[in-house]
């Protein structure tokens, strides 16, 4: 995930309770640093994978109650211990970043969902643990929201991802709708493309709505935070539709007025 994939991460949100800002920041900086290894600069793939393995070794030191070698992991380890965070979500994120280095295409939607399970869902899982709300039901809702956000970002960034050699649209669905990689490269938004993307947007919206109850289950500021995140994802989908799915020339972004609309839609349910 690039930084854009974390634009909904509440690290700087005024809604985040003060007691949680430090651990959330530590998680964010871990994910951000690992993402940069996978995506940024001109390192050979083998070097990227080696550096991600060094991150795994640091997680191992934390798990073994040893002192990590770097400030990033010293800070992260302190928050993991204080808040009793599970280690598996951190390993899942590293697995997803490693996959980004070597895997550039996804055969079908199940293949893509497996990636999202490790690239997006761990963030929601960790936040629920910080909130003290990591019940099986809440985690299931969170997974739906996080996966939907990840997919929404993929559709927002089709051109950007293609520029670095990645296509997240499932290959079998490209074939089903008669869309080629050459068409993506040229940014052609014909009827076939619009039908493909309407299907993708409808599915992402349904997934987001299936997780929407979490915004009411969580109370106070974190509940409002969650409802705003959900509203933001749905707003991007609305913008994709309004642009007739031409994200090549009209990449949807959230502007100040959108935040007003999102806040209005995020009022607590009576």
Notes on the protein architecture:
With 270 residues, the chain is mainly α. The protein folds into 2 domains: 19-102; 103-270, Farnesyl Diphosphate Synthase. It is 70% helix and 0% strand. The protein contains 14 helices and no strands. The protein has helices at 18-39, 45-63, 71-83, 88-102, 109-119, 121-131, 136-156, 158-163, 171-177, 181-186, 191-211, 214-217, 220-242, 256-265. Helix 1 (18-39) packs parallel to helix 4 and helix 5 packs across helix 7 (136-156). Mean pLDDT is 89; it is low at 1-12.
Annotation, overall tally of beta strands: 0
What's the name of the CATH homologous superfamily of the largest domain?
Farnesyl Diphosphate Synthase
| Spatial shape | globular
Q: Which runs of at least 5 residues are low in confidence (pLDDT < 50)?
A: 1-12
Number of structurally distinct domains:
2
Instruction: Give the C-level CATH assignment of the largest domain.
Output: Mainly Alpha
CATH architecture of the largest domain: Orthogonal Bundle
Give the ordered list of helices and strands.
HHHHHHHHHHHHHH
Question: How many angstroms separate the termini?
Answer: 36 Å
Sheet with most strands: none
**Which percent bin holds the helix content?**
over 70%
Please report the number of helical segments. Answer: 14
Estimated structural class: mainly alpha
- What fold name stands as the CATH topology of the largest domain? Farnesyl Diphosphate Synthase
């Amino acid at each position: 995930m690039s930084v854009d994939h974390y634009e909904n991460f509440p690290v700087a949100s005024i809604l985040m309770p003060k007691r949680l800002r430090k651990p959330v920041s530590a998680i964010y900086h871990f994910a951000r640093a690992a993402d940069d290894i996978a995506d940024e600069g001109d390192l050979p793939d083998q070097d990227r994978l080696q550096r991600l393995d060094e991150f795994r070794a640091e997680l191992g030191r934390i798990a073994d109650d040893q002192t990590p070698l770097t400030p990033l992991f010293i800070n992260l380890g302190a928050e993991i211990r204080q808040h009793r965070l599970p280690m598996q979500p951190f390993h899942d994120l590293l697995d997803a970043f490693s996959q980004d280095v070597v895997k550039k295409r996804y055969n079908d939607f199940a293949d893509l969902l497996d990636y999202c399970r490790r690239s997006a869902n761990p963030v929601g899982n960790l936040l629920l643990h910080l909130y003290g709300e990591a019940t099986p039901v809440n985690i299931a809702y969170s997974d739906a929201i996080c996966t939907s956000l990840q997919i929404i970002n993929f559709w927002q960034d089709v051109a950007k991802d293609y520029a670095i050699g990645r296509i997240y649209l499932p290959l079998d669905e490209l074939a089903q709708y008669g869309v080629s990689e050459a068409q993506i490269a040229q940014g052609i938004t014909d009827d076939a493309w619009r039908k493909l993307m309407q299907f993708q947007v409808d599915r992402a919206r349904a997934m987001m709505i299936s997780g929407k109850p979490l915004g009411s289950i969580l109370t106070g500021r974190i509940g409002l935070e969650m409802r705003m995140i959900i509203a933001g994802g749905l707003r991007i989908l609305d913008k994709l539709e309004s642009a007739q799915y031409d994200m090549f020339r009209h990449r949807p972004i959230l502007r100040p007025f959108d935040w007003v609309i999102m806040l209005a839609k995020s009022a607590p349910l009576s």
